Amino acid sequence: MDLKHLIIHEAARIDQVMREDIDRLADDLDPLLIEILNYGLFSGGKRIRPLLTILSARFFGDSNTDVYHLASALEYLHTATLFHDDVIDSGDERRGEATVYKRFGLSEAVLAGDFLHAHSMAMVGHYGGEAALSVFCQATRGMVDGEFSQLRNARNLNQSEADYFSVVMGKTALLIGAACELGALFAGADEHGRAGLRTYGINLGCAFQIVDDLLDYLGDTRKTGKAVGNDLMEAKMTLPLIYALQRADGADRSRLLEILSDDRARQECFQQVSGLIDKYHGFEDAGEKAKQVIGEAIAALPESAGDHSVQRSFLALSDYVLNREK
Amino acid sequence: MDLKHLIIHEAARIDQVMREDIDRLADDLDPLLIEILNYGLFSGGKRIRPLLTILSARFFGDSNTDVYHLASALEYLHTATLFHDDVIDSGDERRGEATVYKRFGLSEAVLAGDFLHAHSMAMVGHYGGEAALSVFCQATRGMVDGEFSQLRNARNLNQSEADYFSVVMGKTALLIGAACELGALFAGADEHGRAGLRTYGINLGCAFQIVDDLLDYLGDTRKTGKAVGNDLMEAKMTLPLIYALQRADGADRSRLLEILSDDRARQECFQQVSGLIDKYHGFEDAGEKAKQVIGEAIAALPESAGDHSVQRSFLALSDYVLNREK
Question: Rounded to whole angstroms, how far apart are CA atoms A185 and B121?
């Protein structure tokens, strides 16, 4: 099966497992909570995190379908963080729909996030045992810690590549690393196997984020469905901009700093900032960095003990992450 | 040791275990997160929930000091819910100090709550295993569900005793029941022993909340340190008021409904509402209900397998919950 069909096929199975789970919960829980869970969970995500858990278990030759339950915990936790992120950012829209925060309110978004958080932990404990729970909680705590680094660094215009990756770890990579490691653990992989899959996932997550940040400057709006320039408007220090700021001097550097410090200029000077980033090879080198990181992801994969088609899926996923246009 | 000294003595030990734990975390985490955890955790709580876990383990003859780690998870989870409750209620003060929400901000309060939430789950999984995690997550999900019932019922002036207890379960009783059950589980108690301790805790929690709600009308401000009338101002439907509304008719009922529906009247007519509740024996019968519930708590305690002083502590705690004036 090619990657696109694999994603669609597995997403449908994951959705089914989650729907059955939420339906079971519906007997005991408040109808509004159930409505919010259905609204927030089934709004067209690609289910990449649970897919990685499932593939990672198969990579080690385990085809026990209980992995779908373990995998759904990744989607639950991811969705819980989206609910809370929207509260934090007062976010109105996500994937073209009103956020839970906007549609149902602040209390509802905080509480439904807490519910999914606890539910995801219970699932991981039940289907993965204590070692899996430890991996999962470690990732969760790391995600929160990363958000604190980001809060602290928000006004810092002199960020390094290391600062960027520290934020990306919390925002994206730790959970994707945990998704892969949990699948390996589920399949009974040894420490070497677990570490290999964790490193694959972390690097895949980092590359995903770098490409995401590149698309925010260079994406084709007709393909991505999103306007460019959001990160600049919010003064987010992503890799292309960090590279440009490190290299520009004199008038160029002053101009960049001036624009970044001014809410209005950040809205109006997107073309100028893009031009300056390009002049200092910010886009080019961020793209190279993504390639390098994907290389590290692939190099970390151990010998597959299972079906070789899984190895091919991992390679196809790496390729997709690197070359996607949306 | 009498109850007061027991509480002080054990609270100091619990605090020490938590401080060492947070200090260990400090090496790896953002300094602001650590500052918030220290601020929110060490602001003078009585540590009743962890105390109950410790006593419940001793009740079954287990004196392994690892129970302090398991017990601290109860305080972590409780504190996480306080952080989020303050976000939901825009709460400015707690125990005479600025809340985390007020002092550090909304993002910080949401995220630090999420951190403690995940951390508490990891502790329970590690020190209590999968069965303990399942009890703990079940209580957490029940707490959230109870908050949804409360949100849904907030504007309903025709509540029943059952509605009240359904809210109290989520707000107070489920977590206290889980605190007791986790101690029993830690000590290897059988299902009968676990259920007995869970029922003791749930009823203790319910009685605690009824008395809390009575003090909000009848408390001596010099002893409680809190003004009376807060629940009325927020139109909270507590047991004395529910009883009065069920029994009053004609002009008295109309007057109560009129006051409850008007923000300003609720602030100004505290004496009148108190008088009407008293006329319909709302306070008296809520007090009787608390006694009945405490009776059920004590009746649920199985034969103690351990030190009989623990049995005496449980009785003293019940007595304290029922007769406290602050």
Answer: 19
pLDDT (tens digit, 9 = 90+) per residue, B203-226? 999 999 999 999 999 998 888 777
Q: What is the ipTM of this complex?
A: 0.92
- Cβ neighbours of B114 in A, within 8 Å: 81, 84, 113, 117, 140, 144
Q: From its phi and psi, is residue B77 left (phi > 0), alpha (psi between -120 and 50) or beta?
A: alpha
Q: What is the CATH number of domain B3-319?
A: 1.10.600.10
CB–CB of A148 and B111 under 8 A?
Answer: yes
Q: Which of A27, A101, A110 to mutate to test the interface with B (most CBs of B within 10 A)?
A: A110
Domains of chain B, by residue range, sit at 3-319
Q: Report the pLDDT value the prediction gives residue B175, as an integer from 0 to 100.
A: 96
Residue B55: CA count within 13 A, CB half-sphere? 32
The encoded tokens of residue B128 equal 């209590």
Strand B97-98 vs strand A97-98: parallel, antiparallel, or unpaired?
Answer: unpaired
Nearest CA in chain B to A147: B111
Q: Which CATH class is domain A3-323?
A: mainly alpha
Q: pLDDT class for B192, splitting at 50, 70, 90?
A: very high
Best probe of the A interface among B22, B138, B144, B149, by most A CBs < 10 A, is B144
